[in-house]
Amino acid sequence: MYTRASSGVSPSCRSTKAIAWPHACPEIRRSPSRGVLPGTGGISGAQIPPRAVWLRALCLELERIANHLGDLGALGNDAGFAFGLAQFSRLKEHLLRATQEALGARYLMSAIVPGGTRLDLTANGADGLATSVRKLRPRR
Fold first, then answer.
1. Do 25 and 64 sit in the same domain of this protein?
2. Which of 34, 46, 98, 122 could form a disulfide with 132 if both were Cys (CB 3.0 to 4.6 A apart)?
């Protein structure tokens, strides 16, 4: 019996078993965690703790901000504005270093796992991350 899967997954991997067990399908194993894992959690009926939901949201937002900083720098570079690339690259690196200190990983693509997260945030890490994110605000 086949179920409907996202367009990025080949038809051979559309069985419920392949979705429930990501290691059975190479396309699912390579997929971004934010798309596949909520589906596998729903299929398995796993209850995710509230802290894990919060940490997942934090990881996704930090990854999104870092990607936006990189994209804005690339846009400036494409327009011949190398200074913009340098500044946005500096801001992105600052954020990635703060993320490394707070969560133990620069890029958070593997942080989300079925049933929770692979990483945890300490009180010191939260303070350091909050300070770093405040520095990203525009100066007035």
1. no
2. 98
